[in-house]
Amino acid sequence: MHQRFVMTDEFDQLHPIPTRTKFINTVLPKVQAKMKTIQYGDRWCTMYACILYVCYLQRINLKDEKYIIQKDQEFVLQKIYAMVDLLVMIAFHYNRYDIFSKLLQYMQYSVQGIEDDTQQLKQIPYIRTQEYVKLTGAHIHSLLDTYRLSNEK
């Protein structure tokens, strides 16, 4: 059975959260290149990489349920929402709406390791507060509605 992955200050210093720009310029191409080697299309890889990034943000920031609710919920959700926004734009650009079910599925997990590109990602169950999952899900649905309306005009 997996132990819960606990982050330390030292780890945070060694692995700072990349900015949105840095993610697009550095993390994304690496994940795309890796995914291409296992015969996935480039478009799907881009969205998959964004999902991984959302999980990565969770792994760094969301240490336990009390942390989410009491200390920094809004700040953490904003960071995740920024990447969800990017994911929504990519999904609409490529007409791949099925990605959102995958995103919601991934939100239930914390990713144990993204450090090594050659290593298979390991996921460990991470119980979220219902409120947290509901907030994130509601945000995705409101974004979907917004983009649908703007695309229909």
What is the topological layout?
Blueprint: H1 9-14, H2 20-37, H3 42-61, H4 65-71, H5 73-94, H6 99-106, E1 109-111, E2 123-125, H7 130-152
GO molecular function, one term: helicase activity
Organism: Lygus hesperus
Protein name: Pre-mRNA-splicing helicase BRR2
Commentary on this structure:
The chain has 153 residues and is mostly helical. The protein has one domain. The chain is 68% helix and 4% strand. The chain has helices spanning 9-14, 20-37, 42-61, 65-71, 73-94, 99-106, 130-152, and strands spanning 109-111, 123-125. The chain has a two-stranded antiparallel ribbon with strand order 1-2. Helix 3 packs antiparallel against helix 5 (73-94), helix 3 runs parallel beside helix 6 and helix 5 packs parallel to helix 7 (130-152). The N and C termini lie far apart (51 Å). 19% of the residues are buried. One of its GO terms (molecular function) is helicase activity. Keywords: ATP-binding, Helicase, Hydrolase, Nucleotide-binding. This is Pre-mRNA-splicing helicase BRR2.
